[in-house]
Amino acid sequence: MCGIVAYIGPNQAYDFLIKGLKRLEYRGYDSAGIALIENNEIKVFKEHGKVQDLVDNLKGKNLSGNIGIGHTRWATHGEPNQKNAHPHLSGSGNLAVIHNGIIENYATLKEVLIKNGHTFKSDTDTEVLVHLIEEIKTNEKCSLFEAVRLALNEVVGAYAIVILSNSDPDTIIAARKGSPLVVGIGKNKDEFFMASDATPIVEYTRTVTYLEDNEIAEIRDGQLNVKTIENREKTPYIQNLELSLEAIEKGGFEHFMLKEIYEQPKSILDSFRGRIDSQNLKIEMRSLNEFENKIKSLKRIIIVACGTSWHAGLVAEYLFEDYARIPVEVEYASEFRYRNPILYPEDLVIAISQSGETADTMAALELAKKSGATIFGVCNVVGSSIPRITDAGAYTHAGPEIGVASTKAFTAQVTVLTLLALGFAQRRGTISDSKLRNILHEIERVPSKVEKVLNSCENIVIQISKEFYKSSNFLYLGRGYNFPVALEGALKLKEISYIHAEGYPAAEMKHGPIALIDEQMPVVVIATQNEIYEKVLSNIQEVKARKGKIIAIVTENDEKVKNLAEFCIEIPETEDSLIPLLSTIPLQLLSYHIAILRGCNVDQPRNLAKSVTVE
Ligand code: G6P
């Protein structure tokens, strides 16, 4: 939540800051602001609303300065408005700060600062931090770096911060704990870029370093120096960015979400590319080999995740139990971390997270780590926090996902979890070679089948959207592997079209949601051919008998459901366990088109953020 950018170098900072904030807007978009230093003076500009609102209000202003910081906000402390927007200034106005995260003990600090004569202009926790830094700098008569270091020793919480000072106008100080911060080193080594992720930086340089937790960086006179908050020198680990500019642009699509939906044949392929060899029955993932003994004796897997990633976890529960015969518990990370859960050193705890930064998922993993369990990450963003703390993991390689509602990350997560479940099954001897061969062949066919779904279903999806976009409720039903798909379909619709939607196991409907069904209620049923197809058919009859409107996702050439449903969307036949990879696609498109017809901002839905770094 919240995106931050900073620049110091020979060029004007403004363009980088604004372009960067637009790239990071997925992290929060309720207000935005920048600060620039020119002639030893800090100029702050901020606005309620999106980055574009800020830009519109800056026309005609003097925006020059070779050093600057910028922020796009997702409100935590203090409502979204201009006064709470970042950057925040210290009492004297000599320091400016931007912050992503939460200062948990801000109320106590604020009380002390007020007693010491400080007055505050905003309701934010961040303003307290910049006042604290200034107070320490004045009292201790120390350098800005030292004041920041001492202040951070008093702070409880999570942060990525960048600070400017008009009395030190050639210096930038940044620090991180719990929230990400990347530093880009310019080609001529005379300019530096900072951002919450690498997307604002890649256009300018590929040489970067990721700050670690509890590190403070100082950039001065073209030098980057890093120390820990305990004052130990650190040598930054410089690496090369592997990210293409095209991957973070819309590429001719109207929205990132639509682009990402259409990218799925490729992102699914990328998630298993080089990892399976169906001829020789091999699943090659480093972690499978490293943990071979552990996998063989494993008694339990616990999956922790949030949002869409939690739905991928539910699919994984079926996969691991079906193939590897290991009991699985799937937990909301936010509940797990506060529940005093029972954990054993023999457990394997898998965290699933697109961003690799979700605060609750991180905290759940840290808890598991303390209990001695092996912790494993399935993440998309390379170099993010979760992969840094896990014992092992597998990246999903879906490429940057910018639309706030997750689409291609979900299908990549499900693919990687399928490979893991099969890899575990093979090592535990719970799957026959012929079964494994069939599934691996089928996985190789998934990208072309997804392509087929994308090419064939958009027209019917648009027709369905036109019919139902004014509905106020939707019900999504599925069984077996399609139950998590029903949950995910409902979540997508809620997130981007603001229609209330519920996902339910189809048979469970009669224990409650059936009371909601009348001629107004669209009911999306995922009714693909499998062992429980006939049972789902009975559930459809139950909806029909109450005049519900049925939108069905069916296997190609299905006849029975067609006779009952108002609308049918066909998907190709595949292994039952791989069905979520196909049945999810039309549901993503349905939520997209309904949201468009309702005039919603699909890439930046209200109140949401993509990377939830607060609990
Ligand atoms: C937010 C996003 C969702 C995402 C969830 C978990 O709510 O809007 O799309 O599924 O966080 O995020 P993660 O990065 O951990 O997968």
Written overview of the protein:
Helices cover 37% and strands 23% of the residues. It is an alpha/beta fold and 615 residues long. The strands form 5 sheets. It has an 8-stranded antiparallel sheet, with helices on one face. Strand 2 and strand 3 form a beta hairpin. Helix 3 (106-115) packs across helix 4. It starts with a strand and ends in an 18-residue tail after the last helix. The mean pLDDT is 94. The structure holds 6-O-phosphono-alpha-D-glucopyranose. 6-O-phosphono-alpha-D-glucopyranose binds at residues 306-309, 353-355, 358, 361, 404-406, 608, 610, 612.
Shape verdict: globular
The gyration radius over C-alpha positions equals 26 Å
**Mean pLDDT value:** 94
Can you list the strand order of the major beta sheet? 3-2-4-1-10-9-11-15
Low-confidence stretches: none
Bound molecules: 6-O-phosphono-alpha-D-glucopyranose
- What level of helicity do the residues show? 25-40%
Helix/strand/pairing class, anyone? alpha/beta
- Alpha-carbon distance between the termini? 11 Å
Tell me what portion of residues adopts beta-strand conformation: 15-25%
What is the helix tally? Answer: 18
Number of strand elements? 27
- How would you sum up the major sheet? 8 strands, antiparallel
